[in-house]
Write a structure and sequence with these properties.
- The protein is an alpha/beta fold.
- The protein has a single domain, classed as Alpha-Beta Barrel (TIM Barrel).
- It has 11 helices and 12 strands.
- 43% of the residues are buried.
- Bound molecules: iron/sulfur cluster (SF4).
- Iron/sulfur cluster (SF4) binds next to loops.
């Protein structure tokens, strides 16, 4: 058995609805400074919105990277953003990418951070055949984005990052995740977002609806008080509980997914979903977490 301390098997809440292939996960930081109201990790990481660096992270990653099989796929990071503001102080994410990629591992970078382009594009480009990037963009509406993700870069800047990464040959998936009823679920707005993403060369869109936990629902309801009643009805009254998360009723989720699949495929992008249970809706040969290029030409 492989013994590691920071690089751990990815375990998405042990969700039966997860459709990712096996991969490893690595969080150089505990907590996250982007402050997203809907964040899932805040329910299981103490003092989540006060991010801190993990002690001895680089030494441990050096050791762990030798213990796992060559060519492993590692997500950086599932429970914190590797390019959140604290990374500007410690700079661990860049060093970790260099260590992992130079040892032949493949990295899925999941982020909203724009420093990936502004400060680290040289290293991303150097290892582009071993890197895929999943950028989250939940809305084109900058006012809503500021409320939902107060410390994250504006969506328009993230679209510019997607464009530039794609131009440099790096595979980019956009996660429209989460879709929250009444906030960012307007189909015309989502169509405009998808069109903009197709225009800048994005290859794949992964979509997921918001899964409620009491802490995130409370944060959302504080900022959007007019929505609380509807959310409680949809999630807690009529929804279903799956592995500790309140999901929207299945037929509502299905309607979102079918509609978005048709728009995404109209623009000739790959469509995938995350933890929804609708894998049969995925565009053929696309992997839901954005690791698609790692499994092509095998
Ligand atoms: S960027 Fe991700 S990890 Fe950070 S607060 Fe937002 S949802 Fe949570």
């Amino acid at each position: 058995m492989v013994r590691t301390r920071l690089i751990k098997p990815f375990d998405p809440w042990r969700s039966p609805l997860c459709t990712c292939p096996f991969k490893w996960s690595l969080n150089p930081y505990t907590g996250c400074g982007h402050g997203c109201l809907y964040c899932y990790a805040s329910s299981y990481v103490p003092k989540f919105y006060s991010p801190r660096a993990k002690r001895g992270v680089l030494e441990v990653v050096h050791r762990d990277s030798l213990a796992i099989p060559m060519g492993s796929v590692i997500e950086l990071s599932p429970s914190s953003d590797p390019f959140q503001p604290i990374d500007d102080i410690y700079g661990y994410s860049r060093k970790i990418i260099e260590v992992l990629a130079s040892r032949g591992h493949r990295i899925l970078i999941t982020t909203k951070g724009t420093s990936i382009l502004a400060k680290h594009i040289d290293v991303i480009e150097r290892y582009r055949d071993r890197i895929a990037v999943a950028l989250t963009i939940t809305t084109l509406n900058s006012s809503n984005a500021k409320l939902l993700e107060p410390e994250a870069p504006p969506p328009i800047e993230r679209i510019s990052v997607a464009k530039e990464l794609g131009r440099r040959g790096i595979y980019v998936t956009i996660r429209i995740d989460p879709i929250i009823p009444g906030i960012n679920d307007d189909i015309d707005e989502l169509r405009e977002l998808i069109k903009r993403l197709a225009d800048v060369g994005v290859k794949q869109i992964t979509v997921s609806t918001y899964k409620a936990k009491y802490d995130s629902l409370k944060r959302l309801s504080t900022v959007f008080p007019d929505m609380e009643k509807l959310w409680r009805k949809l999630y807690i009254g009529e929804g279903e509980k799956i592995h500790g998360y309140f999901y929207l009723p299945q037929q509502i989720r299905y309607r979102y997914m079918v509609k978005l699949k048709s728009i995404v495929e109209e623009y000739e992008l790959g469509f995938t979903t995350c933890r929804e249970g609708f894998q049969y809706l995925h565009t053929e040969n696309y992997i839901c977490d954005g690791t698609t290029p790692f499994y092509r030409n095998k």
